[in-house]
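ugh ok fine here u go
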Amino acid sequence: MRKTCLAVCTMLVIHVTSAAAQIVIVDRPSFNDAATFLALSRTPVGGLPPIATSTILGEVQSGVALALRYGHVGGGDLILGPNGEEVSLNNFGATAVLPLGTGSTMSLTAGVSAPTQGSSALMLSIGGDTRLTAMPLSDTRSGMRLNVGLNGELGYGKPSEATLVAGSVGLPISLVSGSGPRDAMHIVPFLTPAITFSSFDPDDPRFENESGVHFMLGGGLGIYNRTSTVAFNVGFQYMAISGATTQFGIALTLGGR
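structure:
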């Protein structure tokens, strides 16, 4: 019975039109683990790589920026195909990043979550971040500093026959270099420990809503030049759920300077 419930849960989230291509979830993870993992990974909260915003980079954003994002999520032990093959997600999103003062931003994301088997689904989110403090690591003006911020995001996903909601609150920590030539390339490593909540609400009344609270660790490398309107970052999101795989992705940011 437990294995049957897990299989139905996955089919509610990743709709497969052919009966021969039904997706099953192995019974090592719990029903709740599978549902909350899918709620996180099919919304921008866990399904897309983090953006190295001006808040994380320690810069001042002067205009609206557009970030084009791609995230890959492997099914791991949570989602398998009918012959035991892994079903993964390819998520695509576009995020408008708006400056709010000198040390804060707001972001609006729209995208698509596309599984390797099944139908694609809309995903949306709203988020923001703010800089809390910048701690110098040396007494020199050109020395490194540690930036600490606060961020949050609320996401929504609508695959066939289910509604997904997920959110996160985190503390982005970045290592920023001191002053240097304006045309120099900058590489900023960052990590964001976060607490997430996620909800899987099936349209079928025979099944109950599943929700959970989990730890998530995001991070990456931001690469930019102050004289250019193009920036790049690679990133990951690790969701502390039994059987989950780490999401990896890239983001290309245009404008904002």
